[in-house]
Amino acid sequence: MKRSLSTERTYSLGDYKSLKISDKIEEIPEELAMNPEFMETFRHLQLMEIEKAYYDYSVVSQVMRKDGTDGERLVALTEIVNSTFSIIDYSKRTFNRPKFFVWTPGQHIIRILDTYIPRKPVYWFGSGYAQALGEDDPQALLNKRIRLENPDNFRNVRGYRGLSDRYAVNVLDRTVAKVCPNCDADVKSVNSTFPAICPSCNSPAVVNVQVASLNKVRVLQGGKQLFEQFLTRDKDTLDGEGNPRGIQNFDIILHVVGSGAQRTAVAVATTNYDVIEISPENLFDTENIFPKFTEEEMEQLIRGVTMRDIFAARRSTSLTEESTESTAVDPEDVKKKVEELFA
Description:
The protein has helices at about 30-35, 35-65, 70-85, 140-150, 225-235, 295-305, 305-325, 330-340; strands at about 5-15, 15-30, 105-110, 120-125, 130, 165-175, 175-180, 185, 210-215, 215-225, 250-255, 265-270. The chain is about 35% helix and about 25% strand. The two termini are about 55 Å apart. A hairpin with a 2-residue loop joins strand 1 (about 5-15) and strand 2 (about 15-30). It is globular, with a radius of gyration of 27 Å. Strands 3, 4, 5, 6, 10, 11 and 12 form a seven-stranded antiparallel β-sheet that branches. It folds into two domains: about 5-90 and about 325-340, no CATH class; about 105-305, Replication Fork Single-Stranded DNA Binding Protein (Alpha-Beta Complex). The chain contains eight helices and twelve strands. The chain is of the alpha+beta class. Helix 2 (about 35-65) runs parallel beside helix 7, helix 2 (about 35-65) packs parallel to helix 8 and helix 3 packs antiparallel against helix 8 (about 330-340).
């Protein structure tokens, strides 16, 4: 369950007036919310941001007390707001958290959107895949040692993890489904029967939601067998002149049986060739779906440290550096800007 962190301060302005400034951070992952050091650091940063906001307000307020008509003051404030938004750097906020395709037994309808599908060699570490670092990464070296010591049954030896190829691709999920009004999760039927509660948040509110085609971009992950089927469908689905239509130009039905490690899917091309236009901003970054760890972190994974703990350690280490980067306008620049407008 995700948490939130709220901080609020009230400043007295005199004459029975006050200024209340608050800051709220939502959707903090539970593993971070349970880290006291992380939360204490974040709360301290919130307080610093509130103090800075109050200082910015004080600078502008002092300058705005100068002589001038209401119209001139309005122009000044509008200029400050516009200049503030114009210089905010959104380059560090471009990460779009992937939303993944929901697998359930039954039929799913998708349209593949990417022209390039990256292949990533990975190891399975119980809770997720980790990208291989090369032939001599810690897991590869451990695998070699295990094979040398146990040539007949190395796959059954504890610690051995075979290398496999994984793929991730943006798809338009056109499956008929529900969307949970409580947590916004995709709720799909299981062999044509919809669940009575949302699998993500256990809310019963999903019962009253009407079914409809999702028509949402999702990241579909899979192994070599599934993506080889996509490659085959790309080659054998032809137009009237006998040329491949291109896998981005027709829908695919996925017939899914089983779940988890026992799940199998058969990809069948359909005759729906409607044109789909998806803005690039609505696509997810599939290059970094599978996390990449340093050699030291991979050694920790081998020793049994969970990915969640490693990610939490990363955030705790870099939190102060990353969080102190500010996009706020320099108070001196604000003051100078307002003074110029009233000069």
